[in-house]
Amino acid sequence: MLAVVAAGVLLIVVVLLLWYLLAGRLKEPEQGKPPPERPTSQPASCPDVQMISVPGTWESNSNDDPHNPSSNPIALLLNVTNPVSQQFDESRLDVYTVPYVAQFSNPIAIPPDGQQSYNNSRSEGTARMIEQMSSRYQECPLTTYAIVGFSQGAVIAGDVVSQIAAGKGPVPADLILGTTLIADGRRTNQPGSDQPNQIGTPPPGVGAEVSLNGLNVPGISMTGPRPGGFGELAGSTYTICAPGDLICDAPRDALSPFNILGSVGQLVQAVGNPVHALYNGFVVDADGTTATQWTTNWVEGVIEGAPHPAHP
Hints:
By secondary structure, the chain is an alpha/beta fold. 31% of the residues lie in helices and 11% in strands. Pfam families: Cutinase (PF01083).
């Protein structure tokens, strides 16, 4: 009888261990390797500005074309990148939409939903963004960057920009023209010189990762606020959050990590909540400007004011 119980316990331990291993751990972004000196000119093939767009959950895939994304024709940030790309020629602007798996598996789904875990998805998106920026910087050291992210993509973009501000990213901080994050899951809603500018009337809640800080179940690691915020780049960083969007407007400390099943269930539901899908119509100012219109206007403005690097 004792042997049967021991075998049962061993089986449970093995199953739990495999669950955690297969779901994946969150990988820390790797630091870029910038060249030691910046030249006074760069190749004519280099764009003046590199725009980086990081789509949200279910709005990309690993094999999507970064210069002609088509995996989700109604992806939110296409409402920004399409009009912006039409305003500038290739010598002035290159728009790169980060291709990554962009999924969020429900770890308590029975049967399993067949998707990649949040940790695996977020890690891949971060690695792809850093890889593109590192590669561009090595080839084009005077190119500047405008960055936008939505939902899971906002978490990814915000994490990379935070690292850049701390001097640990793929490009120097002075090359970042600005960043706009829509529905950022690590939104703190706190004042401070290292925090981003909030566009529109900020709702009272915080990002889901801040609300659920410390929750760690297979494939989902909630990492809380970004250490150091956005540092010297906070002044050029913007955040937009619609009231009732649980991804960025979750109750403060309301979801107890001790209630794992309930917390995970609410988090998974938050990814697909109706408010989260309506930013193309979410008005952020008295002129009736929507979140995507504001972001488009902002990006066009920073590109128009960006430097024109010399060519040999």
